[in-house]
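In response to the reviewer comment on reproducibility (Comment 2.3), we provide here a single inverse folding case reported in full, input and output, so that an independent group could reproduce the run without further information from us. The C-alpha cells appear first.
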C-alpha cells in the first residue's frame, strides 16, 4: 500500500515532465503595437482658433440657423429662421457686412455652397422655393418653385461644370430631385429613389463625384449624380460589405454629414449623441465618439471637461430643452462637425464647448468656448489660411471658427485673439448691427430714465462691522437698480448672512434666511448682465446668487478669493473697496449645516452712496 501511495505521488510529477517534452519551442511574443502619434500636431493647432472666448458676434433679426465660410472667395454666409441671407466679407482681422437678401418666406431650411465657393443655393420648406446665388457678385441669379416642401439641398456639380446641378430632398416623399439651376424651368432632370423615407441630409464628395445621403431611418447611401448608381471610386461591390447600416442598426439618424478636405473621411453627428466617422472609400466605420449622457457624466472626472456642478446642471437642462425643440421644429439650427485643413483634427459642438479631437491619437486636444456658459454652440464653419511658413510670417493667416448658438439671433467668431477689453465706447464684442426689436428699444428708453436710481456705491452695515462696495451701474444697470432699490426700501434690514464658505465666499440678501427666498424689485426673477470687464478674477468681488440663467432675485455674495469658474454664470456688479477685514472676519466664523453660521451675523442696513466710494 505504501508503494502505491509513493507511485501516486510521483505520477503527476512524471506526467508534468512528460507534458513539457511533448511541446516544441513556443513562438516569440507578438511585438507591441506602436502607439500612433500625430506628427506636427502643434502646427495644425496653431492654424486653429485658440481663444476660449469668442472675439465678436454679429446679429440677424431672427435666430441664426446656418453659417458657411468660403475660403476661396473670402465670404462668410449666414442664414436665419426669418428667411434672411447675409453676405459678409472676411478681412485679415475683421468681418464686414456686404449685402442682405430676403431670400425666403419663412425659415431657410438648408444652405449649400459649390466646391469652389462661387455659388450658393438655399431652400425654404414653407415657400417651397430653391434660390441660386452668384457669391462673387453677390447676386441672386435664379429662383425655382419646386412644387414640394424641401428638406435639404446640395450642389452636386464639379467646379467649372457647364451645368449647375442641385439635389433637393423632399419632406413629402423619399425622392431626391436633381435640377439644372442655370436652365429655365422647374422640371427636375432626374430623380433618385434609393431611399424609402424622406431624405434629411445631402453632401457632395468632389473626389468620388458622389453624393452621400441619409434619411429619417438612418440609412446612408452613396450615389453618382449622373448615373444615380454606386460611384466608381469606392472599393465595395455590395452595401453589406460596408458599415453604412450603422445608424439604422442603432435606430438613430444623422443630423449632419461633413466630408474631410482630403476626401478620405466623412463625419456624422447623430441624434443618439454619437459622432461617427466613416472611411469614404470603404464605407467602414473609422471612429465612434461617445457624447451620450453617461459619457457626459463621466467627463466630470476629467480636468479638461469638468464644469462647476451648478453650471453642469444648467447646461444639461439646455441639452434637454434643445432635444425637445428639435423634435418639434425641423427648421431648427442643427449641429455639425467640421474637419480642419489637415483632415487630422475634428471639431464638433458639445455641452461643454466646441471640442477639437485628434483623430490619429483619439484624444481631445482643445476645447473652444468652454467659459461661454450662456451659449450652446451648434452649427460650425471653419475659415483657415494656408498652412505655410510665408503666410504665417506675413500675418495673413487668421483662422476663424464661425458658430451659431441655440435660439440666438447671433453668430459668433472665435479667433486667436481675445475679446477687446479696453472698455472704450463701441469696443464691445457683441456688435449691434441690427435695430433692436421694439420691446428692447422701449426697455432701453426706460433704463435711461432710471439712472437716478443707480448708486455709485454702498455701505453694508453688519453686526460685525461695515463693508463698503463700489457699484457698476453703467455695466449692469438692472442689477444695480435692483440692489439699490431694495437697500433704500430697507428690504435687507435685519436679514442674516446665511451662508459662509471659508476660502470661497459669504452670501446674504435672503429675507427667509435659508437661501431659498427673495425676489427682485419687479417681482420674480430677472436676467443676467455679464460684462467683459467685470470678472471673478480677484477676491472681494460682489456678485449675484442664482439658481441658473436669468434667475436673479435679491441674494448676493462677496468672494474672498478669485473664483474665475463663476464667470458668465453670476453677474458681477460691485467690488469691496473698504472693510475687507470685516469680510475676512465673517469668513472665519464657525458654521454648521448648509454652511450657516452658528451665531447669526445680521445686516443692520445698507446705505446707498451717490459718489464713487474711496478706499481710504
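Designed residues, in position order:
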Amino acid at each position: 500500500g505504501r508503494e502505491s501511495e509513493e507511485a501516486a505521488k510521483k505520477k503527476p510529477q512524471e506526467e508534468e515532465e512528460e507534458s513539457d517534452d511533448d511541446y516544441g519551442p513556443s513562438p516569440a511574443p507578438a511585438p507591441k503595437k506602436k502607439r500612433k502619434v500625430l506628427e506636427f500636431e502643434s502646427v495644425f493647432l496653431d492654424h486653429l482658433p485658440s481663444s476660449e472666448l469668442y472675439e465678436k458676434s454679429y446679429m440677424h433679426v431672427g435666430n441664426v440657423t446656418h453659417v458657411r465660410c468660403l475660403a476661396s472667395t473670402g465670404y462668410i454666409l449666414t442664414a436665419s429662421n426669418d428667411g434672411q441671407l447675409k453676405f459678409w466679407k472676411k478681412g485679415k482681422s475683421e468681418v464686414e457686412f456686404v449685402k442682405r437678401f430676403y431670400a425666403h418666406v419663412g425659415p431657410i431650411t438648408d444652405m449649400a455652397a459649390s466646391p469652389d465657393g462661387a455659388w450658393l443655393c438655399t431652400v425654404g420648406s414653407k415657400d417651397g422655393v430653391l434660390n441660386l446665388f452668384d457669391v462673387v457678385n453677390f447676386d441672386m441669379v435664379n429662383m425655382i418653385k419646386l412644387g414640394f416642401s424641401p428638406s435639404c439641398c446640395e450642389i452636386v456639380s464639379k467646379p467649372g461644370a457647364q451645368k449647375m446641378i442641385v439635389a433637393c430632398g423632399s419632406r413629402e416623399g423619399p425622392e431626391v430631385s436633381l435640377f439644372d439651376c442655370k436652365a429655365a424651368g422647374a422640371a427636375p432632370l432626374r430623380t433618385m429613389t434609393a431611399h424609402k423615407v424622406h431624405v434629411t441630409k445631402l453632401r457632395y464628395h468632389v473626389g468620388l463625384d458622389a453624393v452621400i445621403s441619409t434619411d429619417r431611418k438612418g440609412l446612408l447611401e452613396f450615389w453618382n449624380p449622373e448615373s444615380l448608381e454606386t460611384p466608381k471610386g469606392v472599393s465595395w461591390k455590395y452595401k453589406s460589405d460596408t458599415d453604412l447600416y450603422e445608424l439604422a442598426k442603432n435606430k438613430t439618424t444623422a443630423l449632419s454629414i461633413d466630408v474631410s478636405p482630403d476626401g478620405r473621411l466623412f463625419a456624422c453627428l447623430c441624434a443618439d449623441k454619437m459622432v461617427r466617422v466613416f472611411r469614404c472609400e470603404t464605407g467602414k466605420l473609422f471612429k465612434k465618439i461617445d457624447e451620450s449622457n453617461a459619457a457626459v457624466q463621466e467627463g466630470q472626472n476629467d480636468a479638461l471637461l469638468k464644469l462647476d456642478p451648478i453650471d453642469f446642471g444648467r447646461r444639461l437642462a439646455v441639452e434637454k430643452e434643445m432635444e425637445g425643440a428639435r423634435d418639434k421644429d425641423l427648421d431648427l439650427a442643427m449641429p455639425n462637425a467640421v474637419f480642419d485643413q489637415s483632415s487630422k483634427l475634428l471639431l464638433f459642438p458639445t455641452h461643454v464647448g466646441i471640442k477639437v479631437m485628434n483623430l490619429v491619437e483619439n484624444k481631445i486636444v482643445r476645447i473652444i468656448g468652454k467659459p461661454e456658459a450662456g451659449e450652446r454652440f451648434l452649427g460650425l464653419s471653419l475659415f483657415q489660411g494656408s498652412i505655410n511658413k510665408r503666410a504665417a510670417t506675413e500675418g495673413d493667416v487668421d483662422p476663424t471658427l464661425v458658430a451659431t448658438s441655440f435660439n440666438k439671433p447671433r453668430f459668433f467668431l472665435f479667433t486667436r485673439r481675445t475679446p477687446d477689453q479696453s472698455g472704450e465706447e463701441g469696443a464691445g464684442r457683441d456688435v449691434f448691427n441690427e435695430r433692436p426689436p421694439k420691446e428692447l428699444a422701449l426697455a432701453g428708453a426706460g433704463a435711461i430714465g432710471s439712472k437716478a436710481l443707480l448708486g455709485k456705491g454702498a455701505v453694508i452695515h453688519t453686526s460685525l462691522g461695515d463693508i463698503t462696495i463700489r457699484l457698476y451701474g453703467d455695466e449692469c444697470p438692472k442689477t444695480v437698480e435692483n440692489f439699490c432699490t431694495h437697500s433704500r426700501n430697507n428690504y435687507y434690514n435685519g436679514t442674516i448672512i446665511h451662508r459662509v464658505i471659508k476660502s470661497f465666499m459669504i452670501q446674504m440678501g435672503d429675507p427667509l434666511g435659508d437661501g431659498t427666498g427673495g425676489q427682485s424689485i419687479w417681482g420674480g426673477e430677472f436676467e443676467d448682465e455679464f460684462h467683459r470687464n467685470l470678472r471673478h478674477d480677484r477676491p472681494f468681488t460682489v456678485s449675484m446668487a442664482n439658481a441658473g440663467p436669468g434667475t436673479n432675485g435679491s441674494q448676493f455674495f462677496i468672494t474672498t478669493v478669485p473664483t474665475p469658474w463663476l464667470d458668465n454664470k453670476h453677474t458681477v456688479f460691485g467690488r469691496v473697496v473698504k472693510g475687507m477685514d470685516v469680510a475676512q472676519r465673517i469668513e472665519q466664523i464657525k458654521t454648521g449645516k448648509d454652511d450657516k453660521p452658528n451665531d447669526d451675523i445680521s445686516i443692520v442696513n445698507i446705505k446707498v452712496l451717490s459718489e464713487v466710494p474711496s478706499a481710504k
